[in-house]
């Protein structure tokens, strides 16, 4: 039907994926390089991994980033789910256009603007109320929640908008209160979307450099802040080792999630078939 | 749920709210609403306020806008000098122009690479489709900073590309690629490509193939059918993808800081330096407000198309 397709599109697809993955592969390959010159091969070695695990600064920063990312993800998921629920289910309420705007604008807002505006806000609040006193974990977490809740909102809202409302309506007709309908019907159905939102919020926070740099205080350097200060001085092999470990964690996590989802899908298909067979 | 309802605080709270006429809906909407007003909208007003105040050597380093000259007389000082300074100084004008040009070129390149990719994924076998989509998204889950860092090792003078070309004997001397505008384009295209592919994929996947068959039956050539049917029908995906790349690329800081040269002026980097190196908060605020004004229209376009996409099912 489309005659030019057999050559052009697959070629672009392959080139596109090579473009996306060659940098990541090069990071991994050169993390096992003996030589200090990151891109000149000097033999196989795992010494940069050993060096990494002795680097207190990197380990401390990683732990701090992990704590912030977990707190942020939990908070952002709650806020984002509420916002997604309101936007997908409450029809036209007063203030909806504004909520739609401010709930999704952080998705594309350049990070330097979000970071600067939040910092100025924290300084103004400290002057006015004495809270937050100084900047650190609290301000970083609040800042991360504000931008990452937008991603959760979009994920939850789009899941809810593809979901048939008749189940919820049926429960309501049978006399369930709205809160009960949410916890018994809506929440279990959108749980995969909520989990995806949590993971997304975690990753965004774990990865954020620019906003963190604005709202951080002395003594709270997250992992990206430490990496950036090292990278600015040039390439260094222990950063490659760190990158390899992070890529591996993500790849394993995604693989597990993929297998789990496939199993769920299979079970659902089997249930549907059994239900059909029973009814015939 | 029953155990929560048995708790004292839950009963008091729900009764108190009901007496005052608040429903569960108000609470569900109210919590994220208040959060976003407080931490997203109000901060912009503060930035606006500080952008019209004067810099002082103090902490915080700006003059208050409202001062009490005496007990009854309130003095409002609005200082537009920061904006005048931005307008007059060629550095800022160049930075804005450069950012928009860089973002526009990168967005176009992203579209040219991303469209065939999205098309290929949408037209591949269903069994492959999810895997390919996952492969597009996977880099997004790994650290952005580290992926930009990877390009330093590839592009630098004794980096992967130059070493390979020297070994082949194609070049005698290394080509300077790092710290050029080329590296910045490459970095932006590389980092934002998934944001382009995903909305394009959603749009192309929905396309009704029988329209293309009908066009072919009526003697329309594939190229013409592509530009007259496929492109117009996937317009929403094209616009959403372009805006998702263009808007953050304008304010990008990490990519020009790591891959660009010292003279690669981009507005995100200028703002960063005004804030962290010069400690001039009022100028940094003015830079932010001016950038926001530039981006208001693209953001509104994006929100309209996103609203259409999300509303399509309802």
Polypeptide structure, described:
The complex is a heterodimer of chains A (280) and B (314). Chain A has 280 residues and is mostly helical. Chain A has helices spanning 5-31, 47-53, 56-89, 96-104, 111-129, 137-161, 166-173, 178-207, 210-215, 223-231, 237-279. Chain A has a domain at 64-231: MetI-like (MetI-like fold, Orthogonal Bundle). Chain A is built from 11 helices and no strands. Chain B is mostly helical and 314 residues long. Chain B is built from 15 helices and 2 strands. Chain B is globular. The two termini of chain B are 30 Å apart. The chains are: A mainly alpha (280), B mainly alpha (314). At the A-B interface, helix 1, helix 3, helix 4, helix 5 and helix 6 of A face helix 3, helix 5, helix 6, helix 7 and helix 9 of B.
Identify the CATH architecture of the domain at 64-231 in chain A: Orthogonal Bundle
Residues in helices of chain B, as a percent range: over 70%
Q: What best-fitting shape of chain A do the alpha-carbon axes yield?
A: globular
Task: State the assembly state of the protein chains.
Answer: heterodimer
Instruction: Give the topology string of chain B: H per helix, E per strand.
Output: HHHEEHHHHHHHHHHHH
CATH topology of the largest domain in chain B, by name, is: MetI-like fold
CATH H-level superfamily of the largest domain in chain B:
MetI-like
Tell me the number of helical segments of chain B per DSSP (H or I, 4 or more residues long): 15
Q: Looking at CATH, which topology of the domain at 64-231 in chain A would you report?
A: MetI-like fold
Average per-residue pLDDT of chain A, rounded, comes to 86
Low-confidence stretches of chain B: none
Strands across the major sheet of chain B, in which order? 1-2
Q: Count the helices of chain A. How many?
A: 11
Major sheet attributes of chain B: 2 strands, antiparallel
**Count of extended strands of chain A:** 0
């Amino acid at each position: 039907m489309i005659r030019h397709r057999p050559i052009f599109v697959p070629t672009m697809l392959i080139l596109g994926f090579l473009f996306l993955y060659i940098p990541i592969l090069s990071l991994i390959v050169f993390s096992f390089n003996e030589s200090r010159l990151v891109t000149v091969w000097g033999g196989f070695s795992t010494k940069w991994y050993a060096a990494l695990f002795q680097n207190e600064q990197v380990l401390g920063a990683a732990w701090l980033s992990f704590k912030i990312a977990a707190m942020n993800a939990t908070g952002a998921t709650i806020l984002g789910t509420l916002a997604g629920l309101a936007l997908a289910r409450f029809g036209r309420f007063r203030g909806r256009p504004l909520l739609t705007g401010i709930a999704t604008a952080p998705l594309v807002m350049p990070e330097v603007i979000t970071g600067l505006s939040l910092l100025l806000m924290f300084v103004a609040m400290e002057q006015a109320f004495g809270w937050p006193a100084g900047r650190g974990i609290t301000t970083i977490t609040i800042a991360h929640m504000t931008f990452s809740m937008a991603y959760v909102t979009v994920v939850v809202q789009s899941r809810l908008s593809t979901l048939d409302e008749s189940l919820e309506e049926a429960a309501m007709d049978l006399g369930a209160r709205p809160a009960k309908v949410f916890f018994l019907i809506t929440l279990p159905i959108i749980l995969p979307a909520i989990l995806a939102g949590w993971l997304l919020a975690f990753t965004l926070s774990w990865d954020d450099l620019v906003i963190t740099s604005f709202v951080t205080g002395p003594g709270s350097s997250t992992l990206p802040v430490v990496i950036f200060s090292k990278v600015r001085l040039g390439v260094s092999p222990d950063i490659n080792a760190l990158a390899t470990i992070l890529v591996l964690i993500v790849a394993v996590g995604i693989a597990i999630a993929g297998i789990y989802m496939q199993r769920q899908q299979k079970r659902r298909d089997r249930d549907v078939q059994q239900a059909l067979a029973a009814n015939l | 749920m029953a155990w929560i309802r048995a708790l004292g605080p839950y009963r008091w709270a729900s009764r108190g709210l009901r007496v005052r006429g608040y429903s569960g809906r108000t609470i569900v909407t109210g919590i994220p609403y208040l959060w976003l007003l407080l931490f997203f909208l109000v901060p912009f007003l503060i930035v606006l306020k500080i952008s019209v105040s004067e810099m002082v050597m103090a902490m915080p380093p700006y003059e208050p806008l409202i001062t009490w000259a005496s007990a009854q007389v309130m003095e409002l000082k609005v200082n537009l000098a920061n904006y005048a300074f931005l307008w007059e100084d060629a550095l800022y004008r160049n930075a804005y122009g450069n950012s928009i040009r860089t973002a526009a070129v990168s967005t176009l390149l992203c579209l040219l690479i991303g469209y065939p990719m999205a098309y290929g994924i949408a037209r591949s076998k269903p069994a492959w489709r999810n895997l390919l989509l996952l492969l597009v998204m996977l880099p997004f889950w790994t650290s952005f900073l580290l992926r930009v860092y990877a390009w330093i090792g590839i592009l630098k003078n004794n980096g992967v590309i130059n070493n390979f070309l020297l070994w082949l004997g194609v070049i005698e001397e290394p080509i300077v690629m790092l710290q050029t505008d080329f590296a910045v384009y490459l970095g932006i295209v590389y980092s934002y490509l998934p944001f382009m592919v995903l909305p394009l994929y959603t749009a192309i996947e929905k396309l009704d193939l029988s329209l293309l068959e009908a066009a072919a039956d009526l003697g329309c050539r594939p190229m013409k059918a592509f530009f007259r049917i496929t492109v117009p029908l996937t317009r929403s995906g094209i616009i959403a993808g372009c805006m998702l790349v263009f808007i953050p690329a304008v304010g990008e800081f990490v990519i020009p800081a790591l891959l660009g040269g010292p003279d690669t002026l981009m507005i995100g980097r200028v703002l960063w330096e005004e804030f962290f190196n010069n400690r001039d908060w009022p100028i940094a605020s003015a830079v932010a407000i001016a950038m926001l004004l530039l981006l208001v229209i693209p953001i509104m376009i994006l929100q309209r198309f996103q609203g259409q996409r999300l509303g399509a099912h309802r």
